[in-house]
Design brief:
Layout: H1 16-26, H2 32-50, H3 71-87, H4 96-122, H5 131-141, H6 149-171, H7 181-188, H8 194-209, H9 215-238, H10 250-254, H11 264-284, H12 289-292, H13 294-301, H14 303-322, H15 328-333, H16 337-354, H17 359-371
Length: about 375
């Protein structure tokens, strides 16, 4: 039997314990290219956290690692949308009764993500933890999962063009300066403002609704995403949006592609970049290269576990070595990126092949199924 396009086939002769774990990672129930993209997103975020990164300059190859700054987290958010789209029916939304169950489980997952995110913030590691924002985005996606691909892409485009203006206004509300402002900031994950970032999630759901296993859809994602990236970053470059003085004005805050600005050009450029990476990863995993990138796919098969583990290890190591989990400069000076990344990739690969599903993914799924049961009949 032929395997689904973009899904790594498992050897037919494998049997027993190892075979079941191999099949979980490589069988038709997983989309290898999506796992690869998730793995790249997780490692990109680790790089953005732990490397000293100069501003990206296309003409200077030494700065190219700066591509991870901002874009990795946007790729992560877009892939959240793809996952939501897949668990709610893929190309066609689930029937109403099943969709109601899926929505309930998304709400449970959002709650779990929020709790884990707050606990990670409590470690004192000096990063903007994305999980609280993820939780809010999951909740916002719940009423949208019945929509088809065209409606979702139109909605994503509208949000991308309008919401950066709204967020600049919201950023200047007095509430952020009150004693409880920082609590609200952490609770909402406002470094990733949901009015803008929901556009990435909606685009990801739209990609899933388009039939993401089809080669023509994968090529379309690569092509359309690349065009959007060129438009967004190109307008940023030619319009002078990169000038530091521009950011202090309302228009300057909106008309920019700077990482983590949530400006219109960042949404267009980095959102397009995310779609292009997803399309490219899906196409790569239609080839023999899918086996070369298997360790990265293992990370992407358990993204919540991988993301959480790297922050927990960071907190412990920084506390033991430096006496302070919040010393970002001191921890970066220890050059922890490669040891942590290699350890994470090796650990996720071993876990996937010897044990199976990521522990946090398994626990969250069991909880969601226990709290929201499917009706029989």
């Amino acid at each position: 039997m032929a395997s689904s396009p973009g899904v790594a086939p498992a050897p037919a002769e494998a049997t027993g314990w190892f075979a079941s774990r191999w099949d979980r990672l490589n069988g038709p129930q997983r989309i290898a290219g999506i796992d690869l993209a998730r793995g790249l997103a997780v490692i990109g975020m680790i790089a953005a956290h732990l490397l000293w990164i100069a501003e990206f300059d296309f003409d200077d190859a030494s700065t190219w690692v700066g591509v991870v700054d901002g874009r990795s987290s946007i790729l992560f958010a877009t892939l959240a949308g793809v996952s939501i789209g897949l668990v709610t029916g893929g190309r066609n939304p689930l029937p109403r009764a099943q969709l109601r169950v899926a929505r309930g489980r998304l709400v449970v997952r959002a709650a779990v993500l929020w709790v884990i995110g707050i606990l990670l913030i409590a470690t004192g590691v000096p990063v903007f933890v994305i999980l609280p924002a993820y939780a809010v985005l999951f909740l916002l996606a719940v009423p949208l999962v019945a929509l088809g691909a065209r409606a979702l892409f139109l909605l994503a485009g509208g949000l991308a063009l309008v919401m950066p203006f709204v967020v600049v206004y919201l950023d200047h509300l007095p509430i952020w300066l009150t004693p409880g402002g920082w609590l609200l900031d952490n609770a909402l994950g406002w470094h990733y403002p949901f009015p803008v970032w929901i556009a990435f999630v909606v685009a990801g759901i739209g990609a899933a609704r388009s039939g993401i296993l089809r080669a023509e859809v994968q090529l379309w994602l690569l092509g359309a995403g690349s065009i959007l990236a060129v438009v967004g970053y190109g307008l940023h470059g030619v319009s002078g949006a990169h000038q530091p003085t521009e950011a202090v004005t309302f228009w300057g805050a909106v008309w920019t592609a700077d990482p983590h600005s949530s400006g219109v050009l960042e949404v267009i450029g980095s959102g397009g970049f995310a779609l292009a990476v997803i399309g490219l990863c899906l196409l790569v995993c239609r080839t023999i290269l899918t086996w070369v990138v298997l360790p990265l796919r293992a990370v992407g098969a358990m993204p919540l576990t991988a993301y959480t583990a790297q922050l927990v290890v960071w907190a412990i190591a920084a506390t033991v070595i430096l006496g302070n989990s919040g010393d970002l400069s001191g921890f970066r000076d220890l050059e922890p990126f490669w040891p942590l990344t290699i350890g994470l990739v090796a650990g996720c690969t071993a876990w996937a092949l010897l044990i199976g599903r990521g522990p946090l993914e398994w626990a969250m799924d069991r909880l969601a199924r226990a709290l929201v049961r499917a009706r029989i009949g």
